[in-house]
Amino acid sequence: MTARDKLSIMQIRIATRADVPAVLHLLADDDISRTRGFGIVAEEVDAAVWAAFEAIDADDRNELIVALDGDEVIGTCQLTFIPGLSRGGAERMLIEAVRIHTARRGQGLGGDLIRWTLDRARERGCAIAQLTTDKRRTDAHRFYAALGFEASHEGMKILL
Description:
Elements: H1 3-9, E1 10-14, H2 20-28, H3 31-35, H4 47-58, E2 62-69, E3 72-82, H5 86-89, E4 92-100, H6 109-124, E5 128-131, H7 138-146
């Protein structure tokens, strides 16, 4: 498959409510996510998930993105645009929850999705794009480094 073929089969757009079950399936289809208790399947979408989707969809600083091959959702990520005083008041884009369907990995689709998100950030005038990735995801670290991301900061989180 050539790069042109790959791009012609993958369409990228903002997710709709109808995409949510497929997005949840992608998010749950991951060993690390399962260790965090994320075992939800598409049939178990509950009110809290629908409320979260509605909040994302209504907020112009958040975008839930899907990548499709025909009608099949094969990838997803969430973009959050953050205003700030640093960098001359420039907006930054946070990329989260990046997933490509297990059967479709290794075809360059993840790189295409990330490049699309970077174009989206440029369209909005963002000065920087950032993401975090679990320390156990060494393949993801190599993937993002190959796309030009630098491990310049140490991220920290606390469960609440």
